[in-house]
Amino acid sequence: MVLKNASILVIDDDADVLTALRLLLKPLVKNVVTEKNPNNIIAQIEKTHYNIIILDMNFTAIVNTGNEGIFWLNKIQKLKPDTSVILMTAYADIDLAIRGLKEGASDFLMKPWKNEKIIETIKTILSQKTSNNKKQKTLNSNTVEIIGESDAMQDVFVKLKKVAPTDANVLILGENGTGKDLIARALHENSNRKDKPFIKVDVGALTSSLFESELFGYKKGAFTDAHEDREGRFEAANGGTLFLDEIGNITLGQQVRLLTVLQNRQVTPLGSNESIDIDIRLICATNVEPKTLADESKFRKDLIYRINTVDIIIPPLRRRGTDITELSRHFVSMYAEKYNKNPFTFDTGFISKLKKHDFPGNVRELQYVLERAVIMTDGNVLKTDDLVFSSIERSTTTKSIETTSLNLDDIEKNAILTVLEKHKGNVSKSAKELGITRAALYRRLEKYEL
Ligand SMILES: Nc1ncnc2c1ncn2[C@@H]1O[C@H](COP(=O)(O)OP(=O)(O)OP(=O)(O)O)[C@@H](O)[C@H]1O
């Protein structure tokens, strides 16, 4: 979008600020409205669609919810998720502005501002809006709908589309409930094998004896309970895709058996002397940390190389920013339909409460929390009180994959994120704990686009 078509609302309780910004912007944009009283924000945004809102962070305390700027930012985002918010703040409140960015503001400006800086910031946001509109928020294929407009998921989509049509073996890494199964299916559905079988086996759950009979099949009489021939999963997947889930949990002995089949591209059912040629595309997934996979006492290197021609790392939900909003809309409308309820709206604070939770169980946990909320709520407004998080998730979920990546940039990025989270976005305290200056921390925040 270009500047001259933009509609902008400026909210500040200082009349001089409003006048200055009105005079600056009026000749440049389509519509500029100024508002002194934040209590009128809702009425203003319901009446007119604004592309950008410039919002002061420091009103005289009108509401008692921490900071007023953050409070109004959350309200605007809930009511008008397409409107971008630029925060205006004093230099002393930079930590607050960073918190605002984390909560979804597009940018912030320091008072006193430079006119060129404001115009440049507005132009950048408008041009990003144009490219964001072109962004594919959802990856759809035959049976799979994967929601993800965050940069992290957009990267996954790009990689997925690149690798799907090839026959390359793919290893999908991600915490529990991040969507590894969906990605595996999407790889199959976007491949040349899409009309052939997609067979999933949870190999981590198979006992030693079941591992072989399940994967390779058996002949009648091969063992006591083998009353008839049974086709193995490799054979069933012939021509299509075999998805081995929880691959990180198989024993070294099972790894050898698997490796032999993958090298020879043949399986021999138990009790048979004849090998069967197999033509499969192999996709594996695990929630085990890369460090464990790299530990040769637990996982064979030659098998890792064979299954991991390309890896796709799915980020945990807590690193996916705005995806929570899109996913919540998706699940709530899905469950409204399932339980024959009318469409729902969200109470103020509903989405921000979700955004504050760190979702150790990832998308699956979000899905359950919202299903429960839809079932339990009265009426058609989902309220913050309808959100009940399970304490079980916290104790059962494996540690974050990204915190254990051995890439130096990842390690640095994760250290910064962990410390920022610990200090609730306070840059001074975080820089101190990291042993670097504030300026050095800002440079890194910029570098890692945090
Ligand atoms: N991006 C997404 N968009 C829509 N639904 C999603 C997304 N990611 C996950 N889901 C849903 O969340 C649930 C869990 O996803 P899935 O089973 O693919 O995760 P997983 O990583 O394979 O889990 P596990 O490690 O436990 O096997 C499923 O119901 C899936 O449909």
UniProtKB/TrEMBL annotation:
Keyword match Transcription: yes
One Pfam family named in its UniProt record: AAA_lid_14
Residue numbers bearing the 4-aspartylphosphate modification: D56
The Sigma-54 factor interaction domain, residue ranges: 146-375
PANTHER family in the cross-refs: ALGINATE BIOSYNTHESIS TRANSCRIPTIONAL REGULATORY PROTEIN ALGB, TRANSCRIPTIONAL REGULATORY PROTEIN
GO annotation, biological process: phosphorelay signal transduction system; regulation of DNA-templated transcription
Record protein name field: DNA-binding transcriptional response regulator, NtrC family, contains REC, AAA-type ATPase, and a Fis-type DNA-binding domains
Taxonomy of the source species: Bacteria, Pseudomonadati, Bacteroidota, Flavobacteriia, Flavobacteriales
InterPro entries on file: AAA+_ATPase (IPR003593), AAA_lid_NorR (IPR058031), CheY-like_superfamily (IPR011006), Homeodomain-like_sf (IPR009057), HTH_Fis (IPR002197), P-loop_NTPase (IPR027417), Sig_transdc_resp-reg_receiver (IPR001789), Sigma_54_int (IPR002078)
Response regulatory domain residues: 7-126
Alphabetized UniProt keyword annotations: ATP-binding, DNA-binding, Nucleotide-binding, Phosphoprotein, Transcription, Transcription regulation
Origin species: Winogradskyella jejuensis
Alphabetized SUPFAM superfamilies for the sequence: CheY-like, Homeodomain-like, P-loop containing nucleoside triphosphate hydrolases
GO molecular function annotation: ATP binding; sequence-specific DNA binding
